[in-house]
Amino acid sequence: MNKISRRRFLSRSLAAASVAATAGYAAPHLALSQGSVSPNEQLGVVIVGAGGRGLGSHGNQWVNDKNTRILYFCEPDETVGNKACDAVAEKNGFRPKFVADMREAFDDKSLDVMSSATTNHWHALSGIWGMQAGLHCYIEKPICHNVHEGQALIAAAKKYNKCVQTGSQCRSTLANIEANKFIKEGGIGEVKFARGLCYKRRKSIGALGTFEPPKSVDYNLWSGPAPLVPVTRPNFHYDWHWQRLYGNGDLGNQGPHQTDIARWHLGIECFPNSVITYGGRLGYDIERNDPNYVDAGDTANTETTIFDYGDKCIVFEVRGLETPAYKGASIGVIVYGSEGYLVQIDYGRSVAYDNDDNVIKEFKGGGDTPHFDNFIAAVKANDPTMLHADARCGHLSAGMSHIGNISYYLGENNKVSIDETRKTLEGIKSLDDNGEALDRMVEHLTSDKNNKVDLKKTPISMGPLLKMDPEKEVFIDNAEANAMLTREYRDLFVVPTVDKV
What we know:
- This protein is of the alpha/beta class.
- The protein has two domains: 9-168, NAD(P)-binding Rossmann-like Domain (Rossmann fold), CATH 3.40.50.720; 172-368 and 391-500, Dihydrodipicolinate Reductase, domain 2.
- Helix content is 31%, strand content 19%.
- The protein has helices spanning 52-64, 78-92, 102-106, 123-132, 147-160, 174-184, 219-223, 249-253, 255-266, 284-287, 369-381, 391-410, 418-426, 434-446, 479-483; strands at 43-48, 68-74, 97-99, 113-116, 136-139, 164-166, 191-199, 274-280, 302-308, 313-319, 331-337, 340-346, 349-354, 359-364, 415-416, 460-462, 466-469, 474-475.
- Strands 7, 8, 9, 10, 11, 12, 13, 14, 15, 16, 17 and 18 form a twelve-stranded mixed beta sheet that branches.
- The longest helix has 20 residues, at 391-410.
């Protein structure tokens, strides 16, 4: 196919767009870069989801990129959407058009790119609809809310020959690229095991109840592929992350960044042979000093997931209560080699050590911009093979969180003592020291200095060991688990099967 054509979109549907900002509104900071490109040489962008990530990250990238111009913000909250449009207008003199329903924007042939920063449960469908409308898509992680959706995205990208970049920006940062090269060249010897960390304090999202959505929100549209049910969390925006109908907990919120780096460094390009998760949503009764307190979240705030790949293994640890860093990292990855180990301390810094904990080499260089730049280069060349994190890459990393959560959800009511947990872990294949990992979890939960969770009164949950067919991406002889690889969709918001994208 030829490279994409340049469109003179200013003479089309947005020619009459107003250049105005709402009086008195303090726009989020959007710093414009110097220099510009004629509008008829720019790619038309629609941003779907105008909240913190949509405006603060995606908005900043596209408004500062000389190759792009934001033509639309799509957002079911009218107030949030219009504020995003105003913020862009204040900075570059051109106000994007606000629409609540993305399908209205997708009808505009002036668009080239869809940039999705929606709630997790909308990621896949926004991408599929975007590709069906002829758009290249940048989709935040997790690229999908369940395994079926990831498979559908891969199929759509292939069918429509579109660039689909997952928001796994670590794939494009200098620190991680050089660290990956170092590992592949044997810098820490043979590597078979990696540990991902999300040691991130998450306070209670409030008591479980029934609440009205904001009046500015089209709640039917916001719910989209998810069931239309009453709101049960006090804070409507953001806190959906911790409710499984919409989000995937920190295993699926933060996890896809770290599991992606772990897979990359270990050279893993498939689903695991098995997965098991143990943990719980614990400590908030103590935080609120109320033994009967029920938090509105229903995803785990403390959990350990073991992914077995045969000769390789990845473990991911979530710590939502106060906890110290581990080997210098709180949100990062530790890759263990025969001659040392490498710690991704943050998105823009990794350090390699020998087995005596002496620094071998340090890697620096981060930021979101290189990842967006890579996407735009691929779009302009109409070449998906140029992408650093395509749909399959995003699917494999997000899929780890989905199958890990499935094990947890299936075992949620299987409350076990620490001794019982230890006995179960003794029979689980892993390249980790499963007992030591459990001890650190217990310390995290029960430390007098930090959390003081009574594990006899509120024990952890032990999920089942789920065996998988890595190629077919299904569980073996477990219909209940396989049913959770997808979801029931509402009419008009169905994520299609692979053969119907």
